[in-house]
Write a structure and sequence with these properties.
Number of domains: 2
Helix content: 40-55%
Strand content: 5-15%
Shape: elongated
Number of helices: 3
Largest sheet: 2 strands, antiparallel
Number of strands: 2
Structural class: mainly alpha
Amino acid sequence: MKNPDNDQLWRDSLNGGAGETFAAGSLTRMLIYSRRRRLRRRLLGVSALVGTPVLLLCLVLSRSHPPLRPLATNQPPSIPTGDLPDAGPAQVHFLTDEELLSRFPDRPIALIGPPGERQLVFLDKVP
């Protein structure tokens, strides 16, 4: 069983006047396609030729420099203590509720929570 669209295509290609137009159009499309394909191949070759040395240079430079020091860490700074005498246990002075409240005389504050676990809350208005 033949497809009628293919029959029409064969008739157009074999006809004298219509065949020349079809052949010229087909040749033009084929030339455009082959030029684009050749251009793509050239661009791929040039990009590989230029990209490979750039990639190698980046790789060499990244390995030749020492890694950057982080700006902040979670570790406390290390302090050499070889020449310092032992200070013994640290003396900590806990403020009483009255001493803490007296440090903020002109601000509205409150101590909230059970004794020993109280939190200082500032009652200022937030703008």
